[in-house]
């Protein structure tokens, strides 16, 4: 038996120690007798007669490596190792060195050499190999979050307890996960929570802030410290993400505050600063990720809160710490422009990072463009490391996804188009970690995401290390991995073909036909005809096609161009349908081709095969429904309000709708035994295709809605064919009456009430008057204030209600910064907590020389309230009783009139 001595410096860092352990295990498995030695070797005495030696160290700290370099004994034919880079070299005299740029570089070098030893069955000779990551940060996000709200707590608010998160305390699960991440050379885990400090620290000044029992607190601290240490040994930063300003429920109740605060208060600032300081003292190797958007009015208070509270608390916690590296602070670019915050913070704390979503909350393209590309490029130009966040994946849920070629192009886009240098990767089923959505066999445990979705993680992190690998070599690599899992090269190649083809379907369908790239839509559950032909009614998110898609045409735009014989631009709906059907068919043929060659992993292969079949049916649902939509929009733009004409178009559309429905039935049948649900976030924020993600979370629950849609359509077509005018056409001019006024008391001295009517001035400064008013608003009592003050600093309005009521708020139809923007579920998960998310009266008010105004209604209980929306001018147009029904409509009749054709499906 050959003997190898592994030398190292005294008191090696945990990461170096772990790397040496990997080498030791690999050499022992190859049959060597391995000895570990604290090396006192020098450049002129490292040789030993008949002894094989191996040395691992950081070139910035190792005297041996530095002297070998100075003497030109250790030379690098690539870039010299820096940071996480490494170099493996066979020196004369039977010495092999692992030279790392830092401790992580040593770990990765040891890992690389251990893998080579394992493949060769011996220590390789003639080594001269260097490598380093392209992306500085590479790792997954894990949510300490649940799929349902726990009243009176709000979204994201979950104290960390064994009852809520049993997996958090499962050390075997964590070790499996950490080892997988090390194998893929990840160096960060982003752990998401709403307000974690109330579960991890105790404060003398605020004992009421602790939200867990003493036993739970002790268990949390012990678990978190163990996790941070185990992650650190594998070169992984643990970073804790939290929202601002969220406060613990018992703290809020004691001090009479709301759980989510829009602006800093001395009390909340003191509590947060002390919480962060205590957290950093307890866990000095854990970083922080900060979300200044959503609850906090970050555009106004972001700099103040970030510098005076968060960084101040961090620095206080580090004051007596001797950590080797200062923990990172990552500023999430969500509902805030972070540039000013970063510029103000850099002099105080240099280890700053920025983060922004890659394709919003879906995966749609490897050519992001437009506004979001500009945002990334601006952030990438700052003196920080910029991270792309592959977020939520709402259009991929719940199916497996493993298209390495698509993922590689995304990481190339992240590097070249978005100028980023870090990856923040969501699991495919974020909200239900650690479980996959697959329905288990009776009595069997649920599948773990790290087992089911191994290729998802492996592909993203492989290309985060190096996105520019040769495509042909990559095909060989992935086919080989799949061959190991499924038993043959033939199976591996065919399964890879199936993954690649199926992986094109969801991105293309959503980006051309979807309502949003966000969590609001579950794409695999389909879309209604109204959502396809009249998307404006359902509040589409323009970023989907303006930033998260290549150039192309939406459905109605395509039909108008086609009828006008105008040239088409970019992707068209028929292009995407043809591509998607081709990809789905290719995937199906490939997975069927693989079936006969699979000799291992049969159960998982059959689940993958079922997914490919389901994706094929999902494509069929969309393809035929889009064909129907094209015919219906052609009908709309052809008949010129004479709806008895061209019923042949309607009949053909009905045939396509029926074909789509048949595909949906097959999809429902397929998924009935394979999936528990389609989406991981089952909350009222899910609006598309059907409101309420709790009640409509599986295809079987949505199927009756689509069946009724077709029934209503067939009924109305028959009416038209028989010469009968459908009810909606008979009632085009339904009378509209004014809303009833509810009593309220205005308590703010800087504002005044006014009567809402034509000619009324809507602000206290300037002569801006109403020139057109929806009948519902006429005569209500509004509140006016200074437009200038609201636009520059924001206006807080205090009022009192004797009874529950709805407050009517008008938002200007303009993205200009002077105007307050309407609530958006894409940017604020709490946007619909009080209603008011969707406009009830679109363009319900017109003002002289100003943009039109959409009117929203917010619910308030009886009592005293303060409206404080932050910076931006808006209108308060009345207060009406809580039970007052307000019929949603477009006052200019552009998206709810009979010409939208929604009456055909309803």
From TrEMBL:
Record has Hydrolase as a keyword: yes
SUPFAM superfamilies: beta-N-acetylhexosaminidase-like domain
Lineage start: Bacteria, Bacillati, Bacillota, Bacilli, Bacillales
Organism per entry: Paenibacillus konkukensis
Name used for this protein in its record: Alpha glucuronidase N-terminal domain-containing protein
Keywords recorded for this protein, A-Z: Hydrolase
Highest taxon above the source species: Bacteria
InterPro entries for the chain: Hex-like_dom2 (IPR029018)
